[in-house]
Amino acid sequence: MVDQQERRIVTGKSLAALGVAHSSSGDVSIHGLGRRSRLRRALAGMMFERAFRRQHGMTPDTSFGTPDLLPQPSTRKCLSADEKTSAPSWPGAVNWGSSVGPKVFVPVASSRRDGFMIGDRESAEQDEGKSTWQDVSRARSALVSGAARGQGRSHAVRLAQEGADIIAFDVCRQLDTVHYPLATPEDLAETVKLVEELGRGIVAGEADVRDSAAVQALVDGGVREFGRLDVVCANAGIGGVVENTWSITEEEWEEMIAVDLTGVWKTVRAAVPAMVQAGTGGSIVITSSAAGLKGMPGAAHYVSAKHGLVGLMRTLANELAPYFIRVNSVHPTGVNTPMIVNEFMAQALSSADGSFNLQNALPVEMVEPVDVSNAIVWLASEEARYVTGVSLPVDAGFLQR
User: Fold this and answer.
1) Spelled out in words, what is the top-level CATH class assigned to the domain 81-400?
2) Does the structure show a pLDDT above 50 at 75?
């Protein structure tokens, strides 16, 4: 906490007396504060905001969220290319909104995993009242990994409902150590169809999160098509249940870590440079799990990977904060998706001795994918513009048991 003397310095002295220097360009610097690091940081934030206001022609008494600076619900419309270019962009917020006439990329046949097919779509006006918070943000595009079905498809569709164009990928084939069916090219094509039906553009292809070159190529293609990248949903992952930690095979351990932890890092690594270069802030949301905040027997490889994502998220939140890119993680309980609802998982849970407990505090067996998607939409929105470094449970109280 700032002590009383520091409070008096903040309120009782001029900024010039505190060593705040202004350059002709409006930039500011702070010097001469010695060891008062907490005060220095607070003042640095104040000065950065002041410089940002000056750069964007905002008056000192204007709030970033002042209604007169934002499009009102009664005037919602599909923005033209010129309007999108000139629209104000707030630090750390995503600019939800409609682009005009982009092309739709659909996944290629399963025999080709390194390219995209291109199809046109017609531009469409958004229906009045379609978005619940279209008046506070106007976004360009969002990257979603693991988008062929389940949570990933839900995230892609929900973000498209809010006006985002989508960059989506999934592995669309079976992995060696996964004992339940994974997504197919047909699943990814269905996600493309659902996004198109909302009048949004989509770049979609088959890529393995472990393949850096494939992920980078898809991200680059999406950025070329939509102009920039605002949101990243690092969602792709696999699950597994084992007897105990010492019975896990090396193949099971290595594939789980490679997909659920290293794959997220590779996804973020491919996306961040474009976000930083755009200079407009953004939001990265990493899908962890309730198992990323709590030890669970019978899933050491999964629990380890999901815990690792929290460390990755917190580090990125610090590293990307200067660029107004916010990084958070979501931690769902069991979700009603094919990763949980399948024959293998049902058999594993029925044969467990009770130690693998998925019971929630709220009287629901599972949450729905859209429950997680709604949390992601909020974290990506202007309404969460100062929320970063947070592990957000969407768990029906599971972690309270």
Assistant:
1) alpha beta
2) no
